[in-house]
Amino acid sequence: MRFAWRNGCGDTGNVGGMKSGRSNLLNVALCLSVFAGATQAGSGVDLTEIPFEQLMLREAVPVAQIAQQVSDAPSAVSIVTAADIRAYGYRTLADVIGSMRGLTTTYDRRYQYLGGRGFGVPEDYAGRIMLLIDGYATQDSLFNQAYIDESGLLDLELVERVEYVPGTGSVTYGNNALLGIINVVTKKGRDFNTAQLSAEVSSHGGQKQRASFGKRFDNGADLLLSASALDVDGRNLYFPAYDTPATHNGIAENQDGETNKRFFGKIAYQGLSIEGAYVDRKKMLPTNPTTSTAFNTPFSVRDENAFLNLAYQTTPSPALSSLSRFYTGQYAYDSSREFADYSLDNEKYGRREYHGSWWGIDQKFVGNWFVDHTMVFGFEFRNDYRQQFRRTYFSPQWATVELFSDSLSRRTASLYLTDEYRINERWSLNLGARHDDASDLAGNWSPRLAVIYKPTLQTTLKASYSEAFRMPHAYERFSYEAAAAPEYVAATELVLQHEFSRDTRLTGSLYSYHRSGQLVYNDALGDYVADGNSRTQGLEIELESLWESGVRSRGSLAWQNAQDVVGSELINSPHVLGKFNLSFPLFDGALRSGLEAQYLGSRLTMERRRLGGVALANLTFSSQRKWHGLSASFSIRNLFDREYEVVSPFDWRPDSGLPQDSLRMDGRSFWCQLNVDL
Length: 678
Hints:
- This protein is mainly beta.
- 8% of the residues lie in helices and 52% in strands.
- The chain has a single domain (20-677), classed as Maltoporin, Chain A, CATH 2.40.170.20.
- It has seven helices and 35 strands.
- A hairpin with a 4-residue loop joins β19 and β20 (427-438).
- It is globular, with a radius of gyration of 25 Å.
């Protein structure tokens, strides 16, 4: 019986190196962003009156919103707002994440994966950054994967802002918050206050329709409902490693299509909120994902994800606030594939059907009984009661040849406590710990200590040390059995934040991570053992600014040095990342233009071949004022039509003997959206 694991897809081609001229242009753009911000430091604009800048200058919100707030963490927070999403034409969470300081995404023609701060090995499903939607942890219970592409739960038109809090977050959120937290805050019904229809067209035969309704009623109830459908034809793709007559001369024909359907709804009334989402996404794979499958044959994956989150916020006393939450979710993965050689075992087709279901309760309190102390404490119980794996193998006539299945489960009970102690006007202390006890693992503590110092009103210094862990997910337990074990990290971080003025802020971060308990293969034992250790050091700097004219800019540079378990440079971990965003009004504010430039440094492939760095640019035009309820956006991705590649998950070669350790990405593409308020 073949075990065609849940692998990714790859592509090959010429190395996408960045020419020196383009590199110099990007460096100049980043320098201009810093220089322009400094020259505007004397501006007297009061940005607290502007929602976008309020989010950038304030990292805390009222206690009543503790379920949705992670920005008060002692870390270098990065925020992208709804205004940014529209100005730069972002279509998925992957687009948003790719614009954030120190983060990257990689696409293998099936999923987009999150990377940054020294992690991001191709096809790394395991959750190391937790993805939240309004405080609900969205990772599935099988792979702990954060779905950030079209398999994600949300349309970005429903997003108010996206917050990224780097550093360990296990003190408050437990498993999967190993290296950071991304919290997506959704809009309220009052943000729409109408019914809205939307239509989109994009390159490669893409079409999308969306219908949304939002309203705040006179009794205070707030309702938001939305449904959308996406259909993309895709295109024929060329793979040099399969350029033989027997494999269609390397062309995957009609194997790149994608569809999805999304539903989202939430209602809030007097402290009670009910929120739910569902997505059903199907993607065809143009690549050959395993050594046993056939090239240019139908290979599809389908992901269904859903959740329901009920929360109730109340204030039992002036010194105590409470958030009670019940949640439930389910995930289903279904893939079909065709094998290349079935002469020995008569197994021509294979199907994977994986299902996960869970529910949980979380009770959180915020106490202010003591002067200058804010205590957050509570407990959580989660029951992953269904983790089922089923594989079926069929003959050429679709008769069942072999069936293999297994079922797992896990129950986790957690207690947590943090205390923010304001020593005086300049010094404060953040202490916290969480204990997680799983039914299949020994209990684990996640501690954190942070010191915050404000020498002036404009400058803040933060120093933190924390430890976190990640439990082996169900698929690792299914695949590695007894070898599956928790992974740990110890993190140290120094942060500097300085406001040159109320419209210009500088953020810098210096960090060091030590990861342990990673699985490595032991030749002597002939099995995997959790003895791997790796290290990452990095530096990040970012400057954000707003002009009185409405021009907004953000520029960041990140340097990182990541070593794998044998002390070598980590695969798919660029040393340098550069980001530059510039948005400005046109035609007396009727339109807004958004220019985005990104530099991705050189990276090593699975065969330790180096892909050259690449600079990319995107350009978007969007209406700022509606005309009779109409609004529109037009975006060009990869503006200069650069040819470039990303690292693929393949470390094997097909019969041609050519490597397929890189995957060629799309050239210039277009996207257009039209909205109408009814």
